[in-house]
Design brief:
Blueprint lengths: L3 H9 L2 H32 L1 H22 L8 H9 L9
Helix pairs in contact: 1-2, 2-3
Organism: Camelina sativa
Main location: membrane
Family: Belongs to the major facilitator superfamily. Sugar transporter (TC 2.A.1.1) family.
């Protein structure tokens, strides 16, 4: 899950905000990674099965989010990708 925000940010944002969006993605990813690293040992002491199920649930929800809400951008121009997010009448094929 770590690189997905960077990939999405590099494809959906226009050039004039791509730097700021990449910075925000990096910041959120770093903070999230730090939270996971700090909480993992405490969660593992609490319950190894519970820790596994908690992380598996988060990954599962992330997969569902990506599969349902992130449009396919392969072979599309930047303008076509931007229209997927701005034009509500555009047919957006998701996976």
């Amino acid at each position: 899950m770590g690189t997905i925000p960077w990939i999405i940010a590099s494809e959906i944002y226009p050039v004039d905000v791509k730097g700021a969006a990449g910075t925000m993605c990096n910041l959120v990813s770093s903070i999230s990674s730090w939270l996971v690293a700090c909480s993992f040992s405490f969660l593992l002491q609490w319950s190894s099965t519970g820790t596994f199920l908690m992380f598996a649930t988060v990954i599962g929800l992330g997969f569902v989010f990506i599969a349902k809400l992130v449009p396919e951008t392969k072979g599309k121009s930047l303008e076509e990708i931007q229209s997927l997010f701005t034009d509500p009448h555009e047919d957006s094929t998701i996976f």
